[in-house]
Design brief:
By secondary structure, the protein is of the alpha/beta class. It is about 25% helix and about 25% strand. A hairpin with a 4-residue loop joins strand 1 and strand 2. The longest helix is centred in the middle third of the chain and has 10 residues.
Length: about 210
């Protein structure tokens, strides 16, 4: 298969024999990709998301997303427009930012499919625990970049794959809706490919700056 992010060739990386799943690793950006033959159907994917208990008032949930919330508050001003892309069933980031008087709207293909949200441009976009679900990450990031103003920022949160991870025991791969695990090399690729001038990685927080 070809890498769904950079379209390079891949090699078989890991076979989950008991579940019949196969993962491949890109020879260029080093991302690890679920074989598309094992992607869930849209109705299966939505049903899985509905099992998540995402209470926007849960202190634990708020703490989980705090790296992105703090990054936005440190870098964006109240009058700038933001988009919570892939806001899900419980848009906790939007709640926390709106509580602080930030101007932010939501979009989610399953739970808030507002096409008007994708016709505007934004000073910043939030993509929290979303990018690992993309079936076509190259196209998705092209869209996200096009929705950002010239000096806009893209704030992402995901668990990056690195060589020190034991993939067999890595819990992050066990979510059946996770289709791609990005490597730091993939972030470098995305920075140049999608018109960003710089990028920053701090644990699970990834910021791409136009």
């Amino acid at each position: 298969m070809k890498c769904t992010l950079c379209y390079s060739t891949t090699n078989l990386f890991y076979e989950y024999n008991e579940r019949g799943l196969a993962y491949h690793q890109c020879t260029t950006c080093n991302s690890v990709l679920l074989d598309p033959a094992h992607y869930l159907r849209p109705e299966q994917e939505k049903a899985h998301y509905l099992t998540h208990e995402n209470d926007v008032n849960d202190p634990g949930y708020q703490q989980f997303v705090s790296p992105i919330v703090k990054a936005v508050m440190n870098n964006q001003v109240l009058t700038e427009k933001g988009l919570d892309f892939g806001s899900g069933t419980g848009p906790v980031i939007t709640k926390l930012l709106k509580d602080a008087n930030y101007d932010i709207t939501t979009y989610d293909p399953f739970f808030d499919a507002n096409p008007l949200a994708l016709t505007n441009t934004y000073n910043y976009i939030i993509c929290s625990e979303v990018m690992e679900h993309f079936h076509n990450p190259h196209e998705e990031f092209k869209v996200l970049s096009s929705l950002l103003n010239k000096s806009g920022n893209l704030y992402c949160m995901t668990q990056l794959y690195h060589e020190g991870i034991d993939f067999k025991t890595w819990r992050y791969k066990n979510d059946p809706t996770h289709t791609i695990f990005y490597h730091a090399d993939a972030i470098s690729y995305m920075t140049g490919e999608f018109g960003f001038s710089s990028s920053f990685i701090d644990g699970k927080l990834i910021v791409l700056n136009k």
